[in-house]
Write a structure and sequence with these properties.
The complex is a heterodimer of chains A (271) and B (252). Chain A is mainly alpha-helical. Helices cover 81% and strands 0% of the residues of chain A. Chain B is globular. Classes of the chains: A mainly alpha (271), B alpha/beta (252). Chains A and B meet through helix 7 and helix 8 of A and helix 2, strand 6 and helix 3 of B.
Amino acid sequence: MSARGRGEGRRGVVIALVSTVVVFTAIGFAIVNAPGWPEVKAQFFDWSEFKATFPDVLDAFWLNVKLFCIAEVIILPLALLLAIVRSLPGPVFFPLRILAIAYTDFFRGVPTILVIVTLGFGAPALQLRGVPQSTTFWGIVSLVLVYTAYVSEVYRAGIESVHPSQNAAARSLGLNHLQSVWYVVVPQAVRRVIPPLLNDFIGLQKDTALVGILGAIEAFKQTQIDQAASFNFTSSVCAAVLFVAITIPLARFTDWLVARDRRRQFAGAPA
Amino acid sequence: MTETGAAALVLENVHKSFGKTEVLRGIDLAVDEHQVVCLIGSSGSGKSTLLRCVNLLEPIDEGRILVAGRDITAAGVNVNEVRKGIGIVFQAFNLFPHMTVLSNVTLGPRKALDLPRAQAEARALELLSRFGLADRRGDYPDRLSGGQQQRVAILRALAMQPKLLLLDEVTSALDPELVSEVLQLIRELAEGGITMVVATHEMGFARDIADRVCFLDAGVILEEGPPDKIFSEPREPRTQQFLARIVAAGRL
C-alpha cells in the first residue's frame, strides 16, 4: 500500500469511529427521552426482574439446546441421504425419487406448529404399546420431519450447482454413480451450501420454542410462566438474549470456516 | 471375448444425435495398438462427441464400438469396467477443485481399482515425479497454472493405466505459452507406445505425433491417411478449405 493509501486508511478508521459514536449516542438519547420510555423500561427491561427470572429461563433453555442439537445431528445426514436419493438416475429408482419428492413437498408445506401439535398430542393419545409418551421425543421427531425437508432442498440446490463435467470426470475414471456423488459432487456441494445450512439451523433453534406448546418447560414456556406470575415481560428479553447468544457466535464461526476453506482451495482468495 | 490381434479400438457406423441435430452420421474408424490417431476438423464437426461416445459418456444411437475386440456398446456391459480401461482428458481439465493434486491422481485407482492408499500414492508420485509435478502434490488445482492443471489431468487418467487414452482438445483452453509443456508430455506418452485418439487444433503437433490423421466434417470422417498425405496433398475440397483456413490463421 502506498503512503497515501495508508494515510487514507487511518483517516477512514477515525471517521468511522466518530460517526458511529455520534449516531449511536443520538439513537440512545432519542430512546431514553421518548415519552413512555419509563413504562417500556419497567415492562421489558427491569433489572431486578431480569436477575430474578434469568436462572429459570436459562435452566429451561437447556431443553431448547438439547432439542436443536439432537434434531440437527439427525437432520444433517438424513437430509443429505434424501437429496442423494432424489439424484439417483434410472427408471429403477423412480419410486424412491417419487417418495423423496412427496416427502419434501408435504413437510415443507405444512406449518411446523401443526406437525408438533398433531404428533405431540396425537401420537401419545393413541396409547399404543411402545409409542413413547415424552413430549421431548415427539418434539424432536416433528422438528426432524419438517427441517429434513428444508435441508434436503438446500443440499439438492448444492448438488445441482456442481457442473456436470465434474461428474463426467469422475465417471470417466470408472467410479460408479454413488462413488462419484460421494467423493466428487457432495463435498463440493456441501461447501457451497454451508451458509444456507446455517440459516436453517438457526431457524431450527428458534422453532424449538414451539415445543413449549406441548407443555415441555423450555425457554419460551418458562417466560410465559414468569409473565403469568409478575405481568412483566423482562423474562422474554432473557430468552431472546439466550437465543441470540447462541446464533451470533455460530454465525461468526461458520464465516470463519468458509473463509478458511476458500483460502485453502482458491488462489487469490483474501488471506 | 478378447480376440488376439484385434484392433485396440473399432467404431462401426456410429450414429449419435442430440435432439434433432445429428452430430455423428456413420463413423467408421479402426485404431491399432500403439497407434496415435489425430482427429482434426472445425468446431462442431463431432470430434468431442466421438471421444465421449467411446468413453460411454454419451450413449450411441446406432452402430457399435469395440475395444480390444469386445463390443462395449452391447446391452448389459458394465460401463464402469469399460471406463477403467479407457482414459479421457477434457479440454477444461475438470480436475476436482476440492482435492489436492495427489488426491486427484489417486482417486480413480483407490476407488475404482480398489488399490490400497499407499500403493495408489506410490503410483501417483512416480507419475508426478516423472513429469516434474511432484512438488505440487499437496496443492489444490486452483493454485496451478493452466498447463500444470492439464498435465495433472493427463496423469490422473494415466494413473488408471488405461489401454487407450482419449485426448479432447487438451490444449485449446490454455494460454499459448503453456501449450508446449502439455504437448511435450503427450509426445512422451506417444513414444512410450500408449494407444491414443487425439482431437486437436494443433496441426503441427498432429503432423508430428500422428500415425494417422482423420478429417471430420459434419459428423463423418471425410478423409483419413498418414499426416504427410493429409497435410500436403488433401484429396477432398472440404479438407483443402479447412487446411487453408488453418494456414491463414498461422497455425500450421
